């Protein structure tokens, strides 16, 4: 399943790496796509939405919306 998160606080390539790594710590097989300009993170993962949201939050960013695709 693909889950799209609207994320605040991402502004550079370091942010992209931090979010990607945080998600992959929870699910090593996750496919993570970050659209920095749009503030969106799309994740294909078998992990729960809450697990993925927590990973982004723990990396220091704020999830403001979640959509399943």
UniProtKB/TrEMBL annotation:
SUPFAM superfamilies hit by this protein: HMA, heavy metal-associated domain (SSF55008)
Record-linked PROSITE patterns: HMA_1 (PS01047), HMA_2 (PS50846)
Domain HMA, first and last residues per copy: 1-64
Coiled-coil region list: none
Record CDD domains: HMA
InterPro entries the UniProt entry points to: Cu-bd (IPR000428), Heavy-metal-associated_CS (IPR017969), HMA_dom (IPR006121), HMA_dom_sf (IPR036163)
Keywords: Metal-binding
Full protein name: Cation transporter
Protein source organism: Paraburkholderia edwinii
Organismal lineage: Bacteria, Pseudomonadati, Pseudomonadota, Betaproteobacteria, Burkholderiales
């Amino acid at each position: 399943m693909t889950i799209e998160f609207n994320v605040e606080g991402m502004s550079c390539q370091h942010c992209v790496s931090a979010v990607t790594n945080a998600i992959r710590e929870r699910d090593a097989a996750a496919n993570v796509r970050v659209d920095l300009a749009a503030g969106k993170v799309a994740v294909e993962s078998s992990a729960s939405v809450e697990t993925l949201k927590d990973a982004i939050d723990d990396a220091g960013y704020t999830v403001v919306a979640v959509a399943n695709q």
